[in-house]
Specification:
With 282 residues, this protein is of the alpha/beta class. Helix content is 38%, strand content 13%.
């Protein structure tokens, strides 16, 4: 059952880095199939710059986006970074072609991924490094070994996980403190409801990927009516619902369009009533 929360606009990652809850995901600033560089690199850089100018101080990327090109693009567009900008990246996948994402939890690969991200992003410290997936070929204790080493060396500040269940979070927590979880979750797909509740109880950030999905066709008229009432788009209502769902939810809608960027960020100004929220949560 979905809960409701006051729509606070900021959240502290790891209890010490305060960021705006409406961030930006860089995955769409790549080629087709998340393969290769952004087709229009100059526009892509402008989108990133416009996001930061509009108040975004949380950007999510991964070494596998491109691969590598997305991290390089972010550095080219934004470095030297504003002091309050948190760039989160991920490692643990390889790329063998468009839309192909083999999991690689080999500790050697993880170590190389961390060092590569630091170099490409031009960072001395990654504020939030996330394990992209668990690899069944390697115990997660081994996979996270180089991450623990990087934390001790001051190269990683905080650690997160992606697409995990509660048992996996608890297992990883025995190795290194976990401050965030990035799972598929949106208005139309709530399969990770129990993970969201767990993270909320533990004070961890929950970062839904694919946040703009607005649900099945049967919800369309309901969402359209609420969108009309707020003078908003369906996508904006989907984002506003997530912001109201739990105060630890951080949003990273991605786009390669300046117009859509503006629309997405405006979702933060929409205050759904409890009645609207309940209607959408049925």
């Amino acid at each position: 059952m979905a809960n409701t929360t006051e729509n606070t606009s900021t959240f502290k990652i790891g209890g010490d880095i305060e960021i705006n809850r409406l961030g930006y995901g860089g995955m769409q600033l790549t080629g087709r199939g998340v393969w290769g560089d952004a087709p229009d690199r100059e526009t892509a850089k402008k989108v990133l710059q416009a996001a930061v100018e509009a108040g975004v101080n949380f950007i999510d990327t991964a070494d596998s986006y491109g691969p590598h090109t997305n991290e390089v693009l972010i550095a080219d567009a934004l470095h030297p970074y504003p002091q309050n900008l948190l760039i989160a990246t991920k490692g643990g996948l390889e790329r063998t072609g468009p839309n192909q994402w083999p999991v690689n939890g080999d500790p050697k690969h993880i170590k190389e991924a961390i060092e590569g991200s630091l170099q490409r992003l031009k960072l001395d410290v990654i504020d939030l490094w996330q394990l992209h997936r668990f690899d069944t070929r390697f115990p997660v204790e081994e996979t996270l070994g180089p991450v623990v080493d990087a934390v001790k060396a001051g190269k990683i500040r905080h650690v997160g996980l992606s697409e995990v269940d509660v048992e996996q979070i608890e297992r990883a927590e025995k190795v290194v403190p976990i401050v965030s979880v990035q799972n598929l979750y949106n208005l139309g797909n709530r399969q990770w409801e129990n993970v969201l509740d767990y993270t909320e109880q533990r004070g961890m950030a929950f970062i839904p990927w694919f946040p703009l999905a607005s649900g099945p066709d049967k919800m369309k008229s309901k969402i359209d009516n609420i969108a009309k009432k707020h003078g908003a788009t369906t996508a904006q209502i989907a984002l506003a619902w997530l912001l109201k769902r739990a105060s630890n939810i951080l949003l990273i809608p991605g786009t390669s369009s300046l117009k859509h960027l503006e629309e997405n960020l405006a979702a933060g100004d929409i205050q759904l009533s409890d009645e609207d929220f309940a209607a959408l949560s049925e």
